[in-house]
Every structure is written in C-alpha cells, then in structure tokens.
TrEMBL record:
<dbReference type="Pfam" id="PF08448">
    <property type="entry name" value="PAS_4"/>
</dbReference>
<dbReference type="InterPro" id="IPR013656">
    <property type="entry name" value="PAS_4"/>
</dbReference>
<dbReference type="InterPro" id="IPR035965">
    <property type="entry name" value="PAS-like_dom_sf"/>
</dbReference>
<dbReference type="InterPro" id="IPR000014">
    <property type="entry name" value="PAS"/>
</dbReference>
<dbReference type="InterPro" id="IPR003018">
    <property type="entry name" value="GAF"/>
</dbReference>
<dbReference type="InterPro" id="IPR052016">
    <property type="entry name" value="Bact_Sigma-Reg"/>
</dbReference>
<dbReference type="Pfam" id="PF01590">
    <property type="entry name" value="GAF"/>
</dbReference>
<dbReference type="InterPro" id="IPR029016">
    <property type="entry name" value="GAF-like_dom_sf"/>
</dbReference>
<keyword id="KW-0378">Hydrolase</keyword>
<feature type="domain" description="PAS">
    <location>
        <begin position="18"/>
        <end position="82"/>
    </location>
</feature>
<dbReference type="InterPro" id="IPR001932">
    <property type="entry name" value="PPM-type_phosphatase-like_dom"/>
</dbReference>
<dbReference type="InterPro" id="IPR036457">
    <property type="entry name" value="PPM-type-like_dom_sf"/>
</dbReference>
<dbReference type="InterPro" id="IPR036890">
    <property type="entry name" value="HATPase_C_sf"/>
</dbReference>
<dbReference type="Pfam" id="PF07228">
    <property type="entry name" value="SpoIIE"/>
</dbReference>
<protein>
    <submittedName>
        <fullName>SpoIIE family protein phosphatase</fullName>
    </submittedName>
</protein>
C-alpha cells in the first residue's frame, strides 16, 4: 500500500530511465537532422561516450560515406510522414566497423506536425529479424567484393566486412598447388596471435582429418560448431589448441570455397571472448549466411585469380619487350630507369583492363662507343598498344644500326609506322559502316645519339615532351627548337611531309637528363577530387628533381616517380642519364692517303695502346687490324681518279644564252665531239668562246642583243688536279674496350668479299670480322667511317 502523499509510480519512472534500459538504440533528430537525444545503448552501439552525439548531425553517428545519400533519403522520406527501414555501415570512434539495421518514424507534435525523426537501430544480424537481416549483410559483402579485381584487396575487404561485425576471427586458406596456404588472418580489436601458435599469412596450413575445416572441404558443405566447449575438435598443433582455449572460442563456422566445381580453399569464422556479444554463438541462420557469403567470396577470388593471371601474362609480355631491370654499363654515362604499369582500371569505373600500355624506352649501343637513347609512347592502352610498342622497339634498334642521323631514323620509323594498318573484322553494332581498316597508331618519341668522348648530343623529336636538364644543380629543360609531328600522324596516301629536324647540344660534364612519358603528368588526382594540370604536374616534377639534383641517378629516378601524388592513370616510363664528370681517353691524327702512311698509323696506334696499358697480346692484335683497315682505305677509298674536265666560271661571258638549259645543251653538244684524251676545243666551242689563253669576243649586234635575256655562262674548260686525299685515325678507350675509327672522304661503304686461294688481296675485312668483337661502317657528312671494337682483356 502506498501512502496518500506518495506520488504515483509512473511519476517516479521518467522516460529517460526506461529508454536507457532498452537493448535498442534510440536516436531523436530535429527537422535539420541534428541529434537532440540518444540513449545509453546508442552510445555503446555507435562507440561514442557522454553527450558527444548531442547537437551534431546524424552523420556524426559514423555513417560511412557511401551511405550518406541513403541517410539523406531517410530524412527526406520520414519528414514527409513516411516510415523508412534499411541498413547502414557505421565507423566507430575506435576505428571498428558495425552494420546497423535502422527503423525510422516521424516525431510528431501534438498538433500533428512532423517536428523531427526518431531512429531505432540494432546491430545487424543480432535482431529478432535475423533471417531477414542477413540479406543486408550479403548486399554489403557483394558491394565490397565488386570493388576490386586484385586478389589481396579482395581478401582484405572480405575480412574487414566480417570482423568484428560477424566474427572475432576470420581465416581464409587457399590452395597453392597441392598445399593449403593461409592468405588472411584477421582478428577483432587489432589482436594478433602470438608467433608459433596459429599459422601466419603465407605459411602452409595442414588440418587433421577430424578438424571442422577439413570436414567442410571433404563434404563440400558448410560446417557449424555451435558450442566449442561441448564439441572438442583436433587442432593442427597443441600450441594452436592451447591458444584457442585461452581466448575462449565459443562458436565456429567453416565454409568451403567452391567455384565451378573446383575447391579453392576454406574460409573460417569464429567467436571468442575478444568482444562482448549478447549471444556469442552461431546458429543455423548464421551457417546459411556464411554458406552464401562463401559462395560469393569464392567467385570473387576466382575472378581475381583469373584477372591477375591475365595481368601477369600481359605485364610479363610487355616487360620482356622492354630492356632488362638493370641498365647496361656504358662508357661516360650513368643510367637509371623506371617502368610502372597503371593499376587496373576498375577503381576508375572503366571495367576490367590489364592496363598494359605502349610506353617504351631503350638504350642502344652504336658504333665507337656512341649510344642511342629513345623514349616514346604509343597512343592508347591494352594489348595492341603493347604489341605496337614491341614492334617499334625492334624496328628502331634495327634502323639505329645504320648509324644515320636521328632525323633520318625518325623519318624511316614514321614511314614504317604508317604501314601498320590492318583489316578490321566487321561486327554488327561496333564497326562503322564502310570502315574496314584500323588506322595506324600515333606515337610520340624522341631519339638521341650521345657521344661521350665529344659530349655532343644529337636528337630529333616526334611530338614528345622535352626532358629536364640538370646542369650544376640547376634544373631546366632541354630546348627543342622543333616539336615535330607524331609518328603515324599522316595517313598512307595523304600528301605532305612531317618534318623531323636535326638538333644538337653539348652536355657539360656531370649533366643529367630526365626523360619521361606523359603518364607521369597526365590525370593525376588532387585531394579535392580534381586533377593536376600538365603544367602543375611538370612543376611538381621540377621541384622534386631540384631537391635531389646532386644525388645519384637512382635517387633522382625515384624522386621523379613520386613527385606527383595520386594513382597513375597510364603507364609511366622514366629514364635518367648522367654524363661523366671526367674526360674519356681519345687520340686522333690525320694522315695523307699514301701507302707509306700505313706504318705511321700503326706506330701511332702502338704508342697509344702502350700508354693505355693494354696487354701486349691485345695491343698486337689491335695494331694488326688497324693496318688492315688503313690499308683498305689507302688502296681503295683513297685511289686517285683520272683528271677530269671542269667548267671554269671566271672572266666575262663571251656568249649569252637565254637560259641555263640552253647553255648546258650547247656545252653537251660540243663536248660530244671531243676525243676522250684530246683537250683541244672543237670549232663550235672555239668560235663561241675563243682559245683558252685569249677568248675571242663575239661582236655585239648594232640594234639588239642576240638573245632577249637570260643568264650568261662562260664555257672555257680547264684541267684541275684532284686534291690530295687524306684519312683520319681516331682511337678511343673505354672501361672494357677500345674502339678504332678510320675516316675518309669516299662515300662507298666497304663489304666483305670471298677471296680465292690464289688471290693476293681481299682478306683484310675478313680478318677484321673474325678477330674484332664488332665492326662496321657508317656514312658521315663528308664520307664514311670504318670502325671496329676490341676488348681490353682477352
């Protein structure tokens, strides 16, 4: 019995006391979605303490970014008087993730107006509607699995979705050949198992016959252990069993990972004392849910494995078409390079792509220690771009062996690229009508030839970005006077000409060139979601290079690659080259092209080789080959031709013609009458021009000239002796080899011929070919150069 003055029982029980007893989160928001009340369970569920929620937006409950639109829809729908229900992903203050099932109703004023929103929430799969709620978690798992095609990312996202929302421990074991290996080991509260207990990621796993994981794989069905205390299972090892007892494992589910009838591995989840849960045991609903999740995970793993296999194949194909991982050792140069394919494009919304591309670079040894350098980019991406890149690299290496100027090489490469059209199969829905050819690819590239002894860099450009040039620690750009058109820009059969201009520069000792493709500076995302402009990216690269300008080339290459933040949208190639700070050994001398000079050339070579410290055996061999090449030049290329008749354009013109063609015709007719060895002039020429010593002038007409107009041409002939021929011998020493070059003014390139048994000559170049490491001949501006290479050591 209560006393008369005692208040009624309902007055002693305020609403807040009742709400704090509820095992359900109650959140009240005003019309602007600001939280004005949250009960004690809400604080525990969402991981906030005190009054942290009050006065803040409902998004402060930790609603994941991908669910913000759904939260907006909740407010919009309920404030109109409707009822809303759905699932949210919430990030707690401690960094853990929890999925909640929310039920929202209008908060009405006594007058009937809607003043706010009341949200009732519980942890997903722990409500009375567990069978219904599991579909919400399945949807979340599907969204996470669809976000990646990379195996490690896929497995990590699966574990993050299940722990700690659905489990305290998650293990994924996959077969690698005949053995099972642990690929995922994730635990709640960032706990990690001590070493030597449970298998770590990457270690092999062997389950005994009675283990629940072994049963799941043998039965090809999900196995549920509701109470681990009542059902004891054999463990892989005693240490693992002991750890499980210490943690207090309460319940386990193991599900096989099956796809197309093939067993990929097993997935296990477990509950323990790491977290507090209202019911720390799985039941049949959870088993069915785990079976459905395992089916989706297996399909995602299979897709990721197939994609990675395809990607690895494509990348291996592409990298095999590029130079090796380590640059070659070259005299007078330090080289470092980087190649990085773009990440798969699923994160950019472009579907499945392997992301191989057409960026390429190369370093080509040329004659006499010279080096060809190229960097380029084929338009587009994918297998065709990589295939075109491989063909381009092979073609350029072949063309470069001709030792022609860079502009000539690019012209030849452009003609070759323009032929790379191919028939296209007509398919309904994608091939344009009447378009039965795929056009030639567009290619940008720059080809350099560097001579480390003279420090001269020759180059020609085809629409590529200029490289950075570091001189004395200062960063600038190598100036291109001509940008040039891209290779393949002019279609076959189209007139006009794309000009590739020859340019040159002298690099100072210790100068550094930084070559890169446009994947480094194109479409790099900023923090605000926009993209850096190309100029902004270039400036970031310049700043990064300036900070390490005096460091080694490997450091510079790394700084260039990391200069612009954000994922790359295209593959990137970077080449950094630095010239030697020291002068390289070279000796050079010009000789008259006379037989007696062969011994002089050999003597100069012997003295030079001795000063370089060559072994006697190698020096003697080198001198022998010097004699053969010089003798070949003296006997063949420098042979004196017969005297020739030349026109001398000195003195006043005695006869005027109305055109140069008429003069040439008259001269040709006169010369036809001359005997081969007779230097007397025929009457036709004598009459027109007079004797050589005293030309007879032709009388001028009284009224008008003989012809109306035209240039005059003096026809007297004179005998000129040919200038004395010379050859130049140049010797170069590198770290591991010496190069010998012989220059002369004859344009004819030598070739090896087969000498008969009784022939006195014809074996010189054969000896050079057999005894030298390499040899060849290249045209020069005023003749040719014959060269050979010999190692410094046998």
């Amino acid at each position: 019995m209560k006393r008369p003055d005692e208040p009624p029982f309902e007055a002693q029980l305020p609403p807040e006391t009742v709400l704090n007893q509820m095992e359900m989160a109650v959140i009240v928001c005003d019309r602007f979605s600001n939280v004005i009340y949250g009960n004690e369970f809400a604080r525990r569920l969402f991981g906030f303490g005190g009054d942290d929620l009050i006065g803040h937006s409902v998004l402060s409950l930790g609603i994941a970014e991908e669910d913000h639109e759904q939260a907006t829809e909740l407010a919009r729908h309920v404030l109109k008087g409707g009822v809303w229900e759905g699932t949210f992903c919430n990030l707690r203050a401690d960094g853990t993730t929890v999925y909640t099932r929310a039920h929202a109703v209008p908060l009405r004023h006594p007058s009937g107006a809607v003043d706010g929103v009341v949200i009732f929430a519980r942890e997903a799969l722990r409500s009375n509607q567990r069978e219904h709620e599991r579909y919400g978690l399945l949807e979340r798992v599907g969204e996470r699995l669809a976000g990646s095609l990379e195996l490690e990312t896929t497995l990590r996202r699966v574990a993050e979705t299940l722990v700690p929302q659905f489990a305290d421990h998650c293990f994924i074991d996959l077969f690698g050949g005949d053995r099972l290996y642990r690929r995922v080991s994730r635990h709640a509260a960032d706990w990690t198992p001590p070493p030597g207990t449970w298998a770590e990621v990457g270690e092999p796993v062997s389950y005994p016959a009675g283990h629940f994981a072994a049963k799941a794989m043998n039965r090809r069905d999900t196995v549920l252990v509701e109470d681990m205390v009542r059902h004891r299972f054999s463990a892989p090892d005693p240490a693992g069993r002991h750890l499980g007892d210490e943690l207090g494992l309460t319940s386990v589910i193991a599900a096989p990972l099956l796809v197309r009838g093939e067993l990929l591995g097993v997935m296990s989840v477990a509950l323990s004392n790491l977290t507090r849960r209202p019911d720390p045991h799985y039941d049949a609903f959870d088993r069915d849910l785990m079976g459905a999740i395992a089916g989706r995970v297996a399909l995602a793993i299979d897709n990721a494995l197939l994609f990675e296999e395809e990607r690895e194949t494509a990348l291996a194909f592409q990298k095999d078409l590029l130079p090796g991982e380590r640059p070659p050792r070259l005299d007078g140069l330090e080289i470092a390079w980087r190649y990085e394919p773009a990440r798969p494009l699923e994160s950019h919304g472009h579907g499945i792509q392997t992301q191989v591309g057409g960026d390429w670079y190369d370093v080509i040894p040329l004659s006499a220690g010279r080096v060809g350098l190229v960097i380029g980019d084929v338009e587009g991406r994918g297998a065709r771009a990589a295939a075109v890149m491989g063909q381009l690299r092979a073609a350029l290496r072949a063309f470069a062996q001709d030792d022609k100027p860079p502009a000539d090489i690019l012209r030849k490469l452009d003609e070759w690229v323009r032929t790379m059209t191919r028939p296209q199969r007509q398919r309904s829905g994608w091939a344009p009508p009447g378009d039965d050819e795929v056009r030639a690819p567009l290619v940008s590239c720059t080809y350099f030839v560097y001579d480390a002894w003279s420090r001269v860099l020759e180059f020609a450009n085809a629409g590529h970005d200029p490289p950075l040039l570091i001189t004395n620690g200062e960063v600038g750009e190598l100036t291109f006077r001509s940008q040039g058109g891209m290779l393949g820009l002019r279609s076959p059969g189209v007139g006009g000409e794309i000009l590739f201009n020859e340019e040159s520069a002298e690099l100072k000792p210790g100068s550094t060139l930084v070559l890169y493709t446009d994947g480094l500076i194109d479409r790099r995302p900023r923090a605000d979601g926009e993209y850096y402009t190309r100029e902004e990216s270039r400036e970031l690269v310049r700043q990064a290079v300036a900070a390490v300008a005096r460091r080694d080339v490997e450091t510079i290459a790394g700084a260039v690659f990391d200069a612009v933040p954000g994922d790359i949208d295209d593959d990137v190639a970077i080449v950094v080259i630095r010239t030697s700070p020291e002068e390289l050994a070279v000796e050079e001398r010009t000789f008259p092209a006379e037989p007696i000079m062969v011994s002089e050339a050999r003597r100069m070579a012997a003295d030079t080789f001795a000063s370089w410290g060559m072994l006697d055996e190698q020096a003697e061999l080198a001198c022998l080959l010097v004699s053969e090449v010089v003798t070949n030049v003296v006997l063949h290329a420098a042979a004196t031709p017969r005297p020739r008749r030349e026109l001398v354009l000195d003195g006043p013109p005695p006869v005027r013609f109305n055109s140069a063609a008429s003069a040439a015709d008259a001269l040709a007719d006169a010369l036809d009458d001359m005997d081969e060895d007779d230097w007397s002039l025929p009457e036709a020429v004598s009459a027109a021009s007079g004797p050589l010593a005293a030309p007879v002038p032709v009388p001028e007409p009284a009224t008008e000239p003989l012809f109306d107009s035209g240039p005059s041409l003096d026809l007297p002939l004179t005998r000129r002796e040919p200038a004395t021929k010379e050859f130049r011998l140049r010797l170069r020493r590198g770290a591991d080899a010496i190069w010998v070059e012989v220059f002369d003014s004859d344009m004819r390139l030598p070739r090896i011929r087969s000498a008969g048994e009784t022939d006195e000559g014809g074996r010189g170049l054969y000896l050079v070919d057999q005894l030298a490491s390499r040899w060849g001949a290249r045209p020069t501006a005023d003749g040719k150069a014959v060269w050979f290479e010999l190692p410094l050591r046998p």
